[in-house]
Write a structure and sequence with these properties.
single chain, alpha/beta, seven-stranded mixed sheet, 12 helices, 15% strand, binds D-malate
């Protein structure tokens, strides 16, 4: 057999696996080190009581012959689709139930959605950005064009800066920079896509961190988006589901390319290759949208945002330039002293026992920057920032 030789074009390992490997090597050599992790954006707050109670009830149902459930609908149970629909209605977005597809998370959907798209298309990817967009397209052998996010454009590249392409990835709030597109900027992207029958893949995984009510939290808040955009979202960062696994993708019926609706294509793909998210998990996800669940999950988000505020204040004290951290759980800081991302990563790990993510891991344009996550425990975040301040004051 012949292998998919496109894999030879990938970086040797996925960014966060490389970081985990480096960390494990360091831990083996220094078992006594008290390490604080601010690398991968993994949550630390436990599932909230509303979610836990809903999941417990679902476990009991699954253990009872009268209420037991076997295979579920691949598209998700309608109770969860309707809860998501209600959430969007609260944002002023009307969706049909069958436009919402429940999945095991944004990462899977962002990769799997490419099944619908010819490998002849050119994809446009911001640089820096979540590495999954690039890696999944490299695997498929698709041509990738880049548009640079820089301090000059507020890390929000616009169509005017972009080369021609058939598909564009937009991530807002952006991972890793924390930048958020406003409505006018997103409208420019929607017009760009509709004019050339292109597709926007909109990653809204961090939407729950947007505190400014003038900023959009869904691409469908922009007129014309239903004819050009697929939105991918997740409960990972919204409700602490990184280990529980649940997300969803919206494919509007109005999205038609080459006389073909993408919605039934995606349903065909999912019903063939995916058996759905566990009932117990979907009941937990449903609880996120109850009054109680919403209040509890938003309290956790406020906790992380307070961490981000503490981190930003510490960087202010030592005069380091940074971005993000307001409508986002990430702080995107400029590396002091002219070090590269990986040099600073090693220095921080070895001298402060703090783990972060080199900006260059998110793309060439990320070199010279470093990402810190606010998803940690508050006391540990304070401790990490004390160590970082000390280290930076010696550079
Ligand atoms: C990140 O750290 O960028 C994210 O946690 C990765 C992910 O969500 O897959």
């Amino acid at each position: 057999m012949k292998i998919n030789a496109n894999y030879n074009n990938l970086e040797k390992s996925y960014l966060f696996i490389t970081i985990a490997k480096k960390l494990n090597e360091y831990k083996e050599a220094h078992p006594e080190a008290d390490i604080i992790k601010m690398g991968i954006g993994d949550v630390t707050r436990p599932l909230c009581p509303a979610v836990v109670n809903a999941m417990n009830r679902a476990v009991t149902e699954m253990g009872n012959a009268e209420t037991f459930r076997g295979y579920g609908d691949e598209q998700g149970y309608s109770f969860l689709q309707d809860a998501i629909k209600g959430y969007y209605a609260g944002k002023g977005v009307e969706l049909e139930t069958d436009e919402i597809f429940v999945s095991d998370g944004a990462k899977s959907d962002l990769g799997n959605i490419l099944d619908l798209i010819s490998t002849e298309n050119t994809v446009l990817v911001p640089d820096p950005v979540y590495p999954v967009y690039v890696d999944t397209n490299v695997m498929a052998g698709r041509k990738i064009a880049y548009m640079t996010g820089s301090e000059e454009n507020g890390f929000l590249p616009m169509p005017g800066d972009a080369p021609e392409a058939d598909i564009v990835y937009l991530c807002s709030p952006n991972n890793p920079t924390g930048a958020v597109y406003d409505k006018d900027q997103l409208k420019e992207w929607v017009d760009w896509a509709n004019e050339r029958d292109a597709l926007i893949l909109f990653d809204a995984a961090y939407e729950a961190f947007v505190g400014d009510e003038n900023l959009p939290t869904s691409i469908y808040q922009i007129e014309g988006a239903k004819t050009c955009a697929i939105e991918v979202c997740s409960f990972s960062k919204t409700a602490g589901f990184t280990g529980t696994r649940c997300g969803y993708t919206v494919v509007p019926h109005a999205l038609v390319r080459e006389n073909t609706e993408l919605n039934p294509m995606w349903r065909r793909r999912q019903t063939t290759k995916f058996n759905g998210v566990p009932y117990i998990v979907q009941r937990g996800a449903e609880a996120v949208f109850t009054e109680e669940g919403y209040a509890q999950t938003r309290a956790d988000i406020a906790y992380y945002k307070e961490n981000a505020r503490i981190m930003a204040a510490a960087l202010d004290e030592v005069g380091v330039t940074y971005f993000g951290g307001i409508n986002s759980p990430y702080i995107w800081m400029k590396i002091p002293g002219g070090m590269t991302g990986w040099e600073f990563f090693d220095k921080l790990l070895e001298e402060a026992n703090v783990v972060g993510t080199p900006g260059v891991g998110f793309g060439k344009a990320g070199e010279g920057y470093f990402r810190l996550t606010a998803f940690g425990n508050k006391e540990r975040t304070i401790e990490a920032m004390e160590r970082i301040k000390k280290l930076i004051s010696l550079i």
